[in-house]
Design a protein that fits this description.
The complex is a heterodimer. Chain A has 15 helices and 17 strands. In chain A, the strands form four sheets. In chain A, strands 1, 2, 3, 4, 5, 15, 16 and 17 form an eight-stranded mixed β-sheet that branches. In chain A, strands 9-12-13-14 form a four-stranded parallel β-sheet. By secondary structure, chain A is an alpha/beta fold. The radius of gyration of chain A is 21 Å and the shape is globular. In chain A, strand 10 (194-195), helix 6 (198-203) and strand 11 form a beta-alpha-beta unit. In chain A, helix 4 (162-172) crosses helix 7, helix 7 runs parallel beside helix 8 and helix 8 (239-250) packs parallel to helix 11 (293-305). Helix content of chain A is 29%, strand content 21%. The relative contact order of chain A is 0.16. The longest helix of chain A is centred in the middle third of the chain and has 18 residues, at 210-227. Chain B is an alpha/beta fold. In chain B, the strands form two sheets. Chain B has a five-stranded parallel β-sheet with strand order 7-6-5-8-9. Chain B starts with 28 loop residues before the first helix and ends with a helix. The chains are: A alpha/beta, B alpha/beta. The A-B interface holds A 196-207, 209, 269, 272, 276-280, 292, 294, 321, 324-329 and B 22-23, 26, 102-104, 122-127, 129-130, 132, 144-148, 182, 185, 208-211, 213, 216-218, 220-224.
Chain lengths: 442, 331
């Protein structure tokens, strides 16, 4: 990527939350890094990227994607997931280890890193906590870290066994690796397929109570406190869990969390749909499930207040056949990379989030959450001189109709299809290379 | 219900707006009463020496049953045959379903063969809604998962109206495994639509959390009808006009959801002592199949107050009415 032609991103409103910059500036990119910020920079030999009327943001960082490779390439590949990331404004994505086989050895991590070498964004691997994600036997956590894992997780399932969880936290304390937990106590959720509430009662679907999330969050806070290791709560979805996390953070514990765009925006109502006939919308089946309006409010408040510093998509692409079936049988998950910015920006347009905060939670927030700005990633999530030239050009006023058929992701599974939102990713630059340019479209 | 001489079977069905019967939640009071008065006409047919009518001649109905069923499947089959339809039974075992064919594929196959209507029972809540979106034929829900069982609710309403006439203000107690019961859910809709005062009785683990939680969930626009919920049957049964016991599955009584079958019976079995606290004219109902000695005492199940056999006979007439209205209704 060092051979790319120099670029000048001209005339955009640069918002770099890390430095507090919010001004119309040009950004010069040389050799894949930010070389200069200033007003009316000279062209030289650089290719000019016209950003007039657009917001120029650091490229987005997603702590939580499922790329399905190896093992389920019909749902997504590392390359197609990276193209989807680019189209969604993401320049760094962290790949969850629930592949087939699971990323539970240095060799499987290596394989993903190798296949991700020339794709359209930076892919950082997450290692499994237990072998095969079976929750029985710890992986070689230090070896996974040395192979490049930026966190460990059995996502899809919690590390349900208390003894394994205790030892994993203790061991991780010396490795400076966050344990990214899927906070669902299976003894409490008992196979629930949606949120346990008024809608599940109506639809006769097995419910997953909010207590299933709180149970693991509270246990992991206790273990993080006892061990000193970092507990990171993946896709936190309930008010009670967010309150527990806020309280733990206020006490100075190393506790972090992420929320997803769908939990910021959609309630369990959409499983039933809006018409007279019930929908049982399998595209709204996701784990953790879509919750109540009060939970949505809590997620937005936690994000605005900085209790949660990262928006992560939990991008979970599936084939059509995985969703075109009975609700009980349908796969969990929403394809999220290409709708994240429209959803978050729609909350900005409704006055629920400040624009700079929204951008921070997609850029420097996740970087700080997992301390990703080390080595050659110094400056990641910022537009500081010397930082990687990862840049997203954002339209903040453009109405868009979500149409997954236009997406790069193989996963067209989204309950947002057909929705009118506000905001689009106009172009994406990854390490100095233009990897997505949709400016003619908008 | 008008049980006069007029038979609607020779007249065209007009103003019936529903293409499917997925649940009773979308039916108005008038629509429920229309089904029940049509069932009355069907009951007349059943009284004839040769109980046959050609009302659905030339129509092909598939009974697609993914779960075992005796009374529902046989009464739908008989209903179709009495009305002159060709009825084909497909069950989960012994068909391509067993070979791993998906529900959508099975429906498409049935549709391609020429099903005008599909009567379907499925273990997954919502499966009939998927079917209604997948194929063109009429879909009749014969029970989906833990969600809905509309013809059971309609036949229960038929029995209750035969007994009491107008249901306005009548006290109906439904006791048992509400959480897992499609019968309870559908009855909630039809009974409240018909003006009855419904009380649900169950120990907390057998109630949907939303029914016992705070007001916000009970006032949710998608919520089940808000009715009285009680954990104490002795309190709930006082003055009841009808008491409906639900089947409780044995595997739920083994210390998992509840301590034991004896503990359940101690608190929730319909006994003659408990029935004595209900209204003197109270009737006892059960959708079947019964666990006699668990949710209902043997003597109560077979007492003069029991309408359990009447429920089974009403089922045939009501299912005939449903098939007739949907298929000849033109929607």
């Amino acid at each position: 990527m060092t051979q790319t032609r120099p670029l000048i991103v001209r005339g955009g409103r640069v918002i770099d939350p890390a430095s507090g910059v919010d001004a119309v500036l040009d950004v010069r990119v040389v050799d894949g890094r930010v070389a200069e910020l200033g007003a009316e920079l000279s062209n030289g030999t650089a290719e000019v990227v016209d950003a007039a009327g657009l917001v120029v943001s650091p490229g987005f960082i997603d702590l939580h994607v499922h790329l399905r490779e190896p093992g389920q390439e019909h749902k997504e590949t590392i390359a197609s997931g990276a193209r989807a990331a680019a189209r969604g404004g993401f320049t760094t994505i962290c790949a969850m280890p629930n592949t087939l086989p699971a990323m539970d050895t240095p060799a499987t991590i290596d394989a993903v890193v190798l296949r991700a070498r020339d794709v359209d964004c930076r892919v950082l691997p997450i290692g499994a906590v237990t072998m095969g994600r079976q929750g029985q036997e710890m992986t070689e956590l230090a070896a996974l870290r040395d192979a490049g894992a930026v966190a460990v997780s059995d996502d899809g399932d919690a590390v349900a066994d208390n003894a394994i969880a205790r030892r994993a936290f203790e061991y991780l304390a010396d490795l400076d690796l966050p344990l990214a937990e899927h906070c669902e106590d299976p003894a409490i959720s008992q196979g629930g397929v949606m949120h346990d509430g008024a809608v599940s009662a109506r639809l006769g679907l097995r419910g997953q109570p909010a207590a299933a999330e709180l149970s693991i969050v509270q246990r992991d806070i206790a273990l993080a406190e006892a061990s000193g290791a970092q507990f990171h709560g993946c896709h936190i979805s309930t008010r009670s869990a967010l309150e527990a996390i806020a309280e733990a953070r206020a006490r100075g514990l190393h506790v972090t969390a992420e929320v997803t765009p769908h939990h910021l925006f959609l309630s369990h109502d959409i499983v039933a749909g809006e018409g007279e006939e019930l929908l049982y919308d399998t595209n709204a089946k996701v784990n953790p499930p879509l919750r109540t309006d009060a939970d949505i409010e809590a997620c937005i408040e936690a994000l605005a207040a900085g209790v949660v510093e990262a928006v992560a998509t939990d991008h979970a692409p599936h084939a059509a056949v995985d969703k075109c079936c009975e609700f009980d049988r349908a796969a969990f998950g929403i394809s999220g990379l290409e709708s994240a910015w429209p959803v978050v920006n729609t909350l900005v347009s409704r006055g629920r989030l400040r624009l700079a905060d929204a951008i921070a939670r997609l850029t420097v927030g996740p970087v700080r959450t997992w301390s990703l700005d080390t080595g050659d990633r110094l400056g990641l999530g910022t537009l500081a001189v010397g930082a990687p030239a990862d840049i997203a050009l954002l339209a903040t006023d453009a109405p868009v109709r979500i149409d997954p058929e236009l997406w790069e992701s193989k996963g067209k599974n989204t309950p947002l299809a057909g929705r009118e939102l506000i905001g689009a990713v106009a172009a994406t630059i990854s390490q100095g290379r233009i990897v997505w340019d949709g400016r003619e479209e908008s | 219900m008008d049980t006069g001489a007029r038979t609607p079977l020779v007249e065209p069905v007009v103003d019936w707006r529903h293409r499917h019967l997925l649940d009773v939640d979308v039916l108005s009071e008038a629509e429920i009463m229309r089904i029940l008065s049509t069932a009355d006409a069907m009951a007349e047919v059943l009284q004839r020496n040769v109980a046959r009518t050609p009302a659905l001649r030339g129509v092909t109905i598939f009974n697609l049953f993914y779960e075992a069923s005796t009374r529902t499947r046989s009464s739908f089959e008989l209903a179709g045959k009495i009305l002159g339809a060709d009825v084909i039974n497909v069950s989960g075992s012994g068909s391509s379903v067993e070979k791993g064919e998906s529900l959508v594929e099975t429906l498409n196959t049935i549709s391609a063969v020429g099903a005008d209507a599909v009567v379907m029972r499925h273990h997954a809540s919502g499966a009939p809604w998927l079917a209604a979106r997948t194929i063109d034929g009429h879909i009749v829900n014969a029970g989906d998962g833990q969600h809905a069982h509309p013809t059971q609710a309609l036949l229960d309403a038929y029995v209750l109206i035969k007994e009491f006439g107008d249901l306005t203000g009548r006290k109906v107690v439904i006791v048992g495994d509400i959480l897992h019961s499609r019968v309870a859910r559908s009855n909630l809709w039809s009974l409240t639509t018909l003006g009855a005062e419904v009380t649900l009785v169950a120990p907390r683990p057998l109630l949907p959390a939303a029914l016992s939680n705070g007001a916000s969930e009970r006032e949710h626009p998608l919520a089940l009808p808000s009715v009285r919920v009680e954990s104490d049957l002795d309190r709930a049964i006082v003055g009841a006009d009808a008491v409906m016991a639900l089947r409780i599955q044995n595997e739920r009584l083994r210390g998992n959801l509840l301590p034991s079958s004896a503990e359940y019976a101690r608190r929730y079995q319909l006994t003659s002592e408990r029935i004595a606290d209900a209204s003197p004219e109270a009737i006892v109902m059960h959708p079947g199949p019964m666990n006699e000695g668990v949710e209902i005492a043997v003597d109560v199940a077979h007492s003069p107050q029991s309408r359990i056999e009447a429920q089974v006979s009403a089922g045939l007439a009501v299912r005939m009415a449903v098939l007739f209205l949907l298929i000849r209704g033109g929607a």
